[in-house]
Each structure stands twice: as structure tokens, then as C-alpha cells.
Amino acid sequence: MGWFSRAQAAATSVRGVNYATSPLLASKTPYGRSQLVLVVMGLMFGGLLARAVYVQLINPGFFQTESLRRTTKEYNAYGLRGDIKDRHGDLLARSRKAPNLVVRPAEFLREEEQFLARNTITSATKPEHAEIIRGRIAARQKRLDRLLALVNMNEADFRRAMASLRPPHTQVVLATKMGEAATVEALGLRFEGIDQDVKFDRTYPESRAVSHVLGWTDPADKGVDGVEKLFDKLLAGSSVKQQAQQDRLGRIVGDQGENPDPKEGEDLTLTLDALLQAVAYRRLEQAVLDSQAKSGSVVVLDAGSGEVLALSNYPSFDPAAPGRSSAWARTNRALTDAYEPGSTMKPFIVALAIEKGLAHPDQVLDTSAFRVHDRLISDHDHAKPSLTVAQVVQKSSNPGTVRLALKLDDQEMYDTLANLGFGRKPDLGLGGVVPGGGLGASGGRLMNWKRWRGADKATMSYGYSISVSVLQLARAYTALAGNGTLLPLSLVKGQPGGEPVRVFTEATARTMREMLRGTVSPEGTAAKAQPVGYTAAGKTGTAQKLVGGRYSSSSHAAWFAGFSPATQPRVVVAVLIDEPKGAYYGGLVAAPVFKDVVEQALRRLGEPPDMEIKPTALMAQADPLRKDRR
């Protein structure tokens, strides 16, 4: 039997009394007894009058203080967390109050017991009073039913939830993320022990597309990972103690004095472009799923400033519910994971050889297979006995690249790779929030030249014995896309990470751009990287991965890194598809992602086309089997 049923049963058990025929009530009251009643009533009224005079005139302060103490409630008021926006002011993250509705069983049950004690019907209860009591009981049950409807519970579950509470806990959550209107209505039902536990709901309009950069917050709106954590002090609102007056039913009826206002968190503007971020994520997702790959990453940089325009990984996660995804899915692999970059490393070796006067684009090199210590340096199906330096880049020749590398001074080669940012964590311009770049960025692996042994120098020249992150590789290509200087990165608008570093002369960078255009052509290894309407330049890479200490013939990292337009680069893009199945070459699985992302990025930037490509030319792609095997 429920609470209301028990109360109703008690109410209906009253036996009616006929006051008109009752001998006791019909008898006349003696005169002396009536005088006694008048005297007693006079004394009572006099006592009440004396008490009122004492309270109002003799000692009002004590009772005013006691009244305030009983009706003043102190609570925390919270300022909302600041917004995170993209470079155009579009919303990436915003908070709203989403309180939990809770019950403190001790208070609720004590008030319920007191209510029943005041509203018990006995045989002595007059019928009209019994009817009033039954009305009170029904009204309370109606309020309780409404409360349970708001939290989507039945009464049995509600009472089981209260009974399940164990020390040291004092309250039970009835509903999470209640809307403001529902919360106000629930509190207005005037039940003791029903209260709100202030929580916050952080919304992310771009969701999975940008989650690895933004990170997420906990229910208290505190940053847990990503930018949310790094800039938590800036974004977080402050909390202050406020006081309010309550009536005896717990309803707030007014402020208590002057309350300080909580401080709202500051907004944060990133360099990201929300639209481009979404495009990059969707295209990356498609590539990973189509190739049945393990994962993928893409980074898009502004070729003139080093600002990060997009940074995406797949798989991803919902930042509003991070606990539903694995820790691996929440990893920002474009920053944290380092891979051997394969042939994407070759342009830097060729550029250094040109810089030192050891090569020029038309110089013919011996590209036949040869040994360096115990390592056979060879090409596969596109092997030729000789190629020009420009063709070495276009065809991605291992022997040609290694022969140039062996002409270089060991320390100069090492210093050049170090100046390109390899071997140390990239600085994302996070204002010194986290030394070493923040966001868990990896520095990869660049072995000091003094430790090189055997074929280390040779294999490093074509992207083995060195590991880099996708972000590091994208940044390194800014030195080729621009005037030979490595650009500082920035993720927060107006906060560049350091100063530009001169790596190559402007003439060398210009020469490399021309040679890398040959890669993105029907004769090169990256014909599928050619954007519609724009010139492009870049390099494919396909590296075998170490599995159990040995290079696997079935596990690869497929790369493409480049920039567009090739004439005056606006964007630099690096793409990694990790462990694709089937056609695993960089020219087949990574290059098409570059193409699609570049097209959208340049249109978004308002860049006019710099070349005309006929539809027939787009169809006349080179034979896919001729793509890069390195």
C-alpha cells in the first residue's frame, strides 16, 4: 500500500458524530463555567500582547537575527565557462547550466513524517476536519506525482533509490542535466530535501571533427584534455558565495543584501576553420574506412603564417561523451604518434644537396642498386640505371637519393633535419601553458649524427631510422612552400610559437617547388593528388612498419605531404593513413585525401584557380600500379 493509500485509509476510518443529537453537546453550559472561560481567554490574550511588546520594542534585535538565520540560505553561484571559437568566430564549444535534481532522504522523510503526524485522522476528528485532511493528503500526493513525472520515476523506484543511500553520501541523484524550466518547477513543488546540484553541459557543434583538439570537460565544467585543459584557467568562470532569503517552505523570496556576481570565463579563439575542419575529418574518415586502415590523420597549415587551419584524426570520439570511446580513440595521433615517414623525407635531402652545390635538377645520377654496408639500396618496379635529380624526386628513387645523401657532411645533414623541427616537440604557440608544445605532442626520433652506424645515414635519407608526427612533417614542408624558412606553428589566434627559422635559401626552395610539381603529374608518383583548378606540389611516402622488431611486408604507413598552389602556396597539407589494406601506397590512399582537402581549403580561402584542367585530363590518370612503393 502506497503512502497516499495509507493516508486515505486512515482518513476514511473515521466514524461520523451527530452533533445535533449528542447529549453532551446539547446540554446547557453553567454560568460559572462560562465566566471561567472568559477569564482564561483574557489571560491568554494579555500574555500574547506582552510578548508582542517585548519582541517589537524591548529586544527586537535578537529575534530579527534569529529570523534571518532561519530564513537565509547560502549557496554558490557560478559563472559560465567561456566559449571556444574558430578563426571566423564560429562556435566550437559552449557551456550551459544543466543541474542535477537530487533528494536528501533524511530531510524528505523527516518532513513527510511530520506531515503525517499533523494530518492523522482519528475517531475524535470532526468530519469537516477529516475532509480538509484528506484534501491535504491528496494535494501532497499530486505534488509528489508531478515531481516523479519530471524525473521520469515511479514512486516505488523513488523510495528504493532513497533507501539505497549509504554513508557518507547524503543525497541521491534523481535526474541529470535538467532543463531550467523543469528544475524551477520541481523546486517550486516545495518538498523538503529536493534540491539542485549545479552541473554544466558543454556542447560541441562540430563534435567528432574537432574533438582531439578541443578535448573535453567534466560535469563541473573543468577542462580534462586538449585545449579545454590547457586553457582551463582562462576559460573557467569563477564561483562566489551568495545569500538568499527563503520562506518556511524553502522557496527563495529575495536576495540577502548585496551579492557579488560570479565572473564569466573568457572566450578563446583558435586558428582552426570549423568548415575546413569538418571537411578534412569527413574525407579522412572515408579514406580510412575505404582502405580498411587502422587510423588516419590530416593536418592543414596556412603556408604563409603557420597557423593550424585543420587537424583531424580518425577514429575520433564525441567530446560530449568521451567515456563512451576508448583511450586510443581519444588520442590525438597527429601530434602524439610518430612514424617513419618513408619517401616524404627525400625532398629535404635533395634540397640540402642543391643548397651545398652538390647537385642541380638536370644533373644525371646513377640510380642502379648498390650496397651500403649490409643494406641493399634499390628501387622496385620503376628502377632505372640513371635519372636526373628532378626525376629522382619525381620517380622517388632510393639509390639516387642515397647517393646524394652520402655526399653530404654528417653533421650538416643532421643539423638541417633538426632545423626542420625533427627530433623535438613542436611549439604550438600555447603561450607557455605547457613546456614543449602541449597537447602531448611527440618530438619523434632523430638520432644524433655521432651515433650513426652502418647504413643509418643512407636509410634516413629515404625515411627510415627516423620517426616524425604528421604535424612535424606538415611544418617541415612550410620551409619548401615558402622562402626556405621553417614557420612557427600557432593554434590560438595571435599566439605564434616562436620565430621563423632559416633552413634553405629562397632559390633552393623555389627549385624544390618546381621539382615537386613533377610528382603531382601523370608521370609522377602522386597523380591522384592533383586538385581541380590548382597547381600542387608534394611527395608520397610508403613505409613498412616495425612489427615485433622486424619490418613487416603487410603493415605500412601511407603518406602524402605537399602544398598548393605550387606557384604561390597558400596551404600545406600532410596526410597519413596507417595500415591500409589492399592498395597501401601513399599515392593511392593518402594523395586523394590531399586533393580533396586542398580543393576545399583554397575555395574557402577565396584563392582563384591558377590552372585549367580539362575533364579528359582528370580521367587520364597514370596507371595506379606505377605509384610510389617507397
From TrEMBL:
Q: Which domain of life is it from?
A: Bacteria
- Penicillin-binding protein transpeptidase domain segment(s): 296-599
Query: Which Gene3D superfamilies does the annotation name?
Result: 3.30.450.330, DD-peptidase/beta-lactamase superfamily, Penicillin-binding protein 2a (Domain 2)
Query: Where does the sequence pass through the membrane?
Result: 36-54
| Location within or outside the cell | Membrane
Annotated region Disordered: the residues are 246-266
SUPFAM superfamilies per the record?
beta-lactamase/transpeptidase-like, Penicillin binding protein dimerisation domain
Q: Which UniProt keywords apply?
A: Carboxypeptidase, Hydrolase, Membrane, Protease, Transmembrane, Transmembrane helix
Q: Using the record's annotation, list all stretches that form the Penicillin-binding protein dimerisation domain.
A: 79-254
Q: GO:BP terms for this protein? A: cell wall organization
Gene Ontology CC: plasma membrane
Which InterPro entries does the entry mention?
Beta-lactam/transpept (IPR050515), Beta-lactam/transpept-like (IPR012338), PBP_dimer (IPR005311), PBP_dimer_sf (IPR036138), PCN-bd_Tpept (IPR001460)
Q: Name one GO molecular function term.
A: penicillin binding
Question: Which PANTHER family did the record assign?
Answer: PEPTIDOGLYCAN D,D-TRANSPEPTIDASE, PEPTIDOGLYCAN D,D-TRANSPEPTIDASE FTSI
Q: What is this protein called?
A: Penicillin-binding protein 2
